[in-house]
Design a protein that fits this description.
This protein has about 260 residues and is of the alpha/beta class. About 45% of the residues lie in helices and about 15% in strands. It contains 12 helices and 8 strands. Strands 1-2-3-4-5-6-7-8 form an 8-stranded parallel beta barrel, surrounded by 8 helices. Helix 11 links the parallel strand 7 and strand 8. Helix 2 runs parallel beside helix 3. It is globular and about 70 Å long.
Length: about 260
């Protein structure tokens, strides 16, 4: 099975950098992000217009390009988690986490026996269509795939130690926009209540051997939380990057017009 470079880097204590695609469906986006130097990309099935066929193609190109493909699924349902993994995703992020029972179900769904109940079909995108003994494949898959909880609800903050103590959880990744909404302080990214809540997650991650991360467009906020120990850094989206560069360039050209 193809090694998961991001999971191995995290195990070595390194920091990894990625972004999230939610609007681009062209396979070349994986090549472009790999060329730029991103370690991973999330394919957003929660808010993006992606079918399982799109995910299959994007994962295949990403794997060949050398960037780790991860998928944010729309919900914690078995079929929504198993199919992206079969297609070649090297990890999943599950949104709206709120209870230990939910996390236990997630781990059961994404892990093969003896650690879970995921159904096995080897000759798929996740094996690069390479035939190998089932026992070897499922052992490697259990070791290589990432299980990422998206922490974006007050309920999750209130029981964070229960969530992160479930065996099989690799990463707790903060969704600060939804978390601020849940806390009643929408879009206030430096509000003391939000900062305190995020710090609780970072502290819990350290207690339970889980990697902390965040997805946000602000480089300054990411830099701050990197200093606090976050190591899975997910910056912006290609759409926002494109719009920002286009706006800045166009403004410069307009200002160059001789009046």
């Amino acid at each position: 099975m193809r090694p998961n470079k991001v999971k191995r880097a995290l195990k070595r204590g390194e920091t990894v950098f990625g972004t999230m695609i939610a609007d681009f469906r062209m396979p070349a986006i994986a090549n472009i992000l790999a060329e730029v130097g991103f370690d991973f990309m999330f394919i957003d099935m929660e808010h993006g217009p992606y079918t399982i066929e799109h995910v299959d193609t994007l994962c295949r190109v990403a794997r060949l390009a050398g960037i780790t493909p991860l998928v944010r699924v729309p919900d914690a349902q078995y079929h929504l988690m198993s199919r992206p993994l079969d297609a070649g995703a090297q990890g999943l992020m599950i949104p709206r986490i709120r209870s230990r029972e939910q996390v236990e179900f997630i781990v059961q769904s994404v892990k093969y026996p003896p650690f879970g109940q995921r159904g096995a079909s080897v000759l798929k995108g996740h094996s690069d269509y390479h035939a190998e003994p089932v026992a070897d494949f499922v052992r490697q898959a259990n070791e290589e795939n990432l299980t990422i909880l998206q922490i974006e609800l007050k309920e999750a903050i209130d029981c964070i130690d229960d969530l992160l103590s479930v065996p099989g959880v690799d990463v707790a990744l903060i969704g600060p926009n939804d978390l601020s909404l849940s806390l009643g302080i929408p879009d206030q990214m430096t509000h003391p209540l939000l900062v305190e809540s995020v710090q609780k997650v970072v502290d819990s991650c350290q207690r339970h051997g889980v990697v902390a991360g965040m997805h946000i467009g602000s480089i300054e906020i990411l830099q701050y939380w990197m200093k606090q120990g976050m190591r899975m850094i997910t910056w912006s989206t290609p759409l926002h990057m494109m719009m920002g560069a286009a706006k800045a360039g166009l403004q410069t050209l307009r200002e160059s017009v001789q009046v």
